[in-house]
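Work through what follows:
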Amino acid sequence: MIKTEPAKPATYGMGWFTATVEGTPIEYHSGAWQGFRSMIVRYPKQKTGSAIMVNSDIPESAALFEKVIAAAAPGLPLPPR
């Protein structure tokens, strides 16, 4: 995790959001542009991750991404919304 001050961790840096969910460090980023959506999630300690790209601008894409990530990385927590 990136540190901004000696005791204060940052939650974003170098293009990645960072979080610790249920004790598991997660790095992630999502984006959308004119009919496309994407999300990438990395679990650095487990050396695994998932990238999802959708040719759609459906607002429910977050739920779809969560299902794909849960299937690709079973047992690992999802990134915060």
Q: What stands out?
A: Residues 3-72 form one domain.
